[in-house]
Amino acid sequence: NPFSGRGEGEPLLAYEFEPDTKSEVLVDLQEYLLTSQIYHSFMDGAASEQSSRMTAMENASKNAGEMIQSLTLKYNRARQSRITTELIEIISGASALEDK
C-alpha cells in the first residue's frame, strides 16, 4: 500500500487533512475513484451505443437510396416497354387501316 508508511517515510506528511485521519480521506478518495471509473464506463457504453446507432442509420439510408435507384430503373423500364407496346399497336392499327 503506497500510503501506509510511518514516521519520516510517511507519505503526505506536509499536508493537513480534514477530517484529521488520513485513512478517512483515503477511503473517500478510493470511493470517489471507484465511482468515477464506473461513471466513465457508463458514459463509454452510452457513447458506443450512440455510435452504433449512427452507423446503423447511415447504412440504412445508403441501402434505401440504392433500393430507390433500383426500383426507379425498373419502373422506367416497365413504363418504356408499355409505351413502346402502345406505339406498336397504334402503328399496326394505322397500317391495317391503310391496307383496306
Q: Overview of this structure, please?
A:
The structure is a single chain. The longest helix is centred in the middle third of the chain and has 78 residues, at about 20-100. The mean pLDDT is about 85. The protein is about 80% helix and about 0% strand. The protein has about 100 residues and is mainly α. The protein is rod-shaped and about 125 Å long.
Topology, element by element:
Elements: H1 22-99
Task: Give a concise summary.
The protein is mostly helical. The chain has one helix and no strands.
Q: What is the H/E order?
A: H
| Terminal residue distance | 113 Å
Overall form: rod-shaped
Overall residue-averaged pLDDT value: 87
CA radius of gyration? 39 Å
Secondary-structure-derived class = mainly alpha
Q: Report the strand count.
A: 0
Put simply, the count of helices is 1
Roughly what fraction of the amino acids lie in strands? under 5%
Give me the oligomer status: single chain
> How is the biggest beta sheet arranged?
none
What percent of residues adopt helix (DSSP H or I)?
over 70%
Poorly predicted residue ranges: none
